[in-house]
Task: structure prediction
Amino acid sequence: MPEVPKATSPVIVDVSLAEKNKKALQFIEDVTANADQVQQRVLVEILSRSAHVEYLQRHGLNGRTNCESFKKLLPVVTYEDLQSDINRIANGDTSPILCSQPISEFLTSSGTSGGERKLMPTIEEELERRSLLYSLLMPVMDQFVPGLEQGKGMYFLFIKSEAKTPSGLVARPVLTSYYKSLHFKNRPYDPYTNYTSPNETILCPDSYQSMYSQLLCGLCQHKEVLRVGAVFASGFIRAIRFLEKHWVLLCNDIRSGTMNPEITDPSVREAVSKILKPNPKLADFIEGECCRDSWQGIITRLWPNTKYIDVIVTGTMSQYIPTLDYYSNGLPLVCSMYASSECYFGLNLRPLCKPSEVSYTLIPTMAYFEFLPIHRNNGVTNSISLPMSLNHKEQQELVDLVDVKLGQEYELIVTTYAGLYRYRVGDVLRVAGFKNKAPQFNFVCRKNVVLSIDSDKTDEVELQNAVKNAVNHLVPFDATLAEYTSYADTSTIPGHYVLYWELRLSGSTSIPPSVFEDCCLTVEESLNSVYRQGRVSDKSIGPLEIKIVEGGTFDKLMDYALSMGASINQYKTPRCVKFAPIVELLNSKVLFSYFSPKCPKWIPGHKQWCTKN
Ligand code: AMP
Result:
């Protein structure tokens, strides 16, 4: 007689999992097939709930919830337009200014305004919307890589420091908010959120202890790991780099079954002690692999059952693809979702496609989406700079989610449940295809961003101001800056900003190296708080470097651009370079190179709050 399956038998688990997966996929089918109706419903829902909020009253909506009035009366806005409303909330005004529901906290975006992180008000129920998007990811993946429920995910997840606004609302990055929420901490057992890192290691505020303990747990459970990842590619590479530096200590712990005394957080020690057992054989194996001359393929060597790396490599993160390929011997790189502090947008329905082909399907229940067509000028520059405020005609060009055209580029505009109305996210997307009626978008770029290593986003104006501040150090030497450009160098780990400076020297005294080092530091001090946090707290960005190039180098750069077809009338020195032959040209002209001697200043929270507190 066949044995009666036990309650916990894998067959039963699989059935319920299969059903859950089917439901999730059906949800995607439904909302994409009815994208237009869903979008209209979302807009009506947002506008009727917030009918009496000050912002909508101010713009004369007077409780109307129809799309025509909304489009006619509400302006398309940027963060700066909302800043005074947001400041009021941060300073304790609890009246319904933007949203009828209480603001539960601020999410600090990596986008900045006036050098400080943008503050996005959010409400409790948004956590559910975010959780919903997360819950769709693995059912999609299961169609392409089945069996992932039988092992674990080794994800390096971290929290960042948080601050309080003068009114006492917490301000922190969206992922910190999510990992600290009960949705994450008390998640019911789900084979798809079965991570090698215990919650305590993820929630440890000390970045060294958090990384160390997560790697230790990942190594101890190396055979169970079926997928690895982090949010962004830069974070995953940082973990591998950490392993390169600390594997001896990690192996000692695994050999003896006791934890390095540098890990002092009691909750981390307790959680890890449940996983860490003396295992000299495993320690020898890891040591053998780490001692080899080359670290090529280290991921597949140490975690041999890994099927893919789950990290975002679209947008500026594409610069890390070669490094990931090297460490993983070309494992698939999976970009699963597209999200921001303002709103979680959508997911990749073909997760095993090539990074260059990744497209994200916006989920129509997340927010009300509109799209501003981008008209690129076909001149020499490929940069996208859009006017800060839109005139009436431009506002009328906005199209709805279901009306975007294949191949066209758009700027994303959202209206959210948390109180943003026709808000310009700052991302440029290109329509790559459709899932039913819902468009799928390639991420093209973030508007105006020239330099990025991790989550930092530096634009041309910030860079220009920072350089302007730094060149003051050259004044006593009768030296001026003739030309400059920049480069995000990710060949070092962590990556760092490089500035190429061509000087015009009139004085006879030579400039001591310490002056250039001061210049490096001044640039860093002048950059936004996300950059400085990356340098100081996250250690995700290395010291800034200034490379002094020979006189005439920038003429050569122009000659090169002209030889490639640029027009002499329109030629402008690019303030950031990416194209390898140009970087090589610049590097071949370097006379001296200097690094920032120390970290710039950074404090959690906004400057204004810290002086007030
Ligand atoms: P933040 O507001 O700090 O959460 O940053 C959100 C921004 O990160 C988005 O607006 C995008 O510019 C970028 N981003 C998020 N997800 C992706 C993705 N999958 N691919 C490329 N860029 C992304």
Q: What stands out?
A: The pocket of adenosine monophosphate is lined by residues 109-111, 174, 312, 314-315, 335, 338-341, 425, 427, 443, 446, 455 (CB under 6 Å). Confidence is low (pLDDT under 50) at residues 1-12, 378-384. The two ends are 74 Å apart (CA to CA). The first helix runs from residue 10 to 33.
